[in-house]
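Worked example

This section walks through a single chain of length 174. The input is the sequence exactly as stored; nothing has been trimmed or padded.
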Amino acid sequence: KHAERVALARTAVSYASSYIQANAGDLDLLIKFVKDSATSSSWHNRIAALSFVVNFYRRHQLVFSSDQKNELMEITQTCLSDKRPEVQDGAREVLTVMMHFCSGLEIEQLSGVFSKMARTKVPKEKFPNKRKKAYRKRLAGVLGLAAIVERFPYSVPHFVPDALVLMCRVAQDP
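Given that input, the structure is written out below as tokens.
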């Protein structure tokens, strides 16, 4: 029964994001709602928040100010490092959608950020907590690079080959 409730909640959030008509003033309140949900202790809430962002951002991306877009990007990047793989994948999906509305320069800058994250050194086995955090940060970088690669299915900008090589290097991480 719990799974049914979760599915119902996700469907409700998806429909709500499709039908909400927001102006620029309402967006700050919606971003606060998304931020609160994305930092919730329940991973179901975090996924629902990301699902909302995917649908809402597609339909209303022209209304967002650059500061609001940056705030959503920060929320998404934080979710890329989540402990739950479902949340990480949802954040990658949001990032892929957001990439479609970014300029080439912005995507290139994000490629640099995600490349740096993917190059994170993993400490020795003596430090298991630091090791887990390093692997999560590294995975977040790889997921960000994957979103960038998905953004260009028919062309290859100059930064994509480097991203692919880096993704291949860390492909065998646990």
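What to look for: The helical segments are 2-19, 24-38, 43-60, 66-80, 85-99, 104-118, 128-151, 160-169.
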